[in-house]
Amino acid sequence: MPVRGSQARRAEIVRLARSSGLASVEELSTQFGVTASTIRRDLGQLTEQGLIARTYGGAIALDPHPESSFRQRAQEGYAAKRQIAQWAAAQVRPGETILLDAGTTVGAMGEFLCDIPGLTVVTAGLSALEELADADDVRVECIGGTLRHLSQGFVGPLAEATLARLTFDRAFLGADSVHAELGICEAELEQTRLKELMIERAGTVYILAHAAKLGQRQFHAWAPIPPGAVLVTDESATESQLKPFRAAGVLTQRAP
Questions:
Q1: How far is CA 239 from CA 37, 230, 233, 254, in A?
Q2: Based on the domain organization, do 43 and 97 belong to the same domain?
Q3: Which end of the chain, N or C, is less surrounded by CB atoms within 10 Å?
Q4: Assigned domain for 96 exists
């Protein structure tokens, strides 16, 4: 039965792309009985909506678990992230220089850092900047660079050049997911490259991730976890989730 209407046709294109991976403009044009230019318009609109990714002459589905926006992530595991952020902030000592990565959990630390005397906070995330904007006693530095709108964080060569000129007593890193063997997972390589530089420049490294992120392979870009790093998660993390990290030399902490 033919698909009638542009909305129904576009929905079917997404379904076909997700199930079979790749479809050419010519194939789709023949299947739906419309012109190639109509299919190209469909593909253009679906690409703008983030439902497919274009290839030369065709359409390919995005990952079945596409990267969510910063606002969407802020609502996920809110209580657990706040517990993690509060525990992490309690590790910071007066007079230290610390690094805050981008991310919702790391950004939440800002609320708990405002009254630490002599503190210098260097950050790659807009949420941490917002939290610390009125903290007059905290020196705040932004690494700058190119803003990734989805993660609300800075990446790229300018950010990397800034990191190369600084060192930190502690670095607090976020993650899309964390795997004991593969490391810290992010959506793009430029994010994991930045994390590698953060790790190199820090005395103590903390990885903040609530239990739902442990052991997952959300995307395909990874930064290795250094031995002695501290994985900070929430109380719902199970022993079976944490055991592989300990075996890999990673310290683990459930935030109370």
A1: 55, 16, 12, 10
A2: no
A3: N
A4: yes
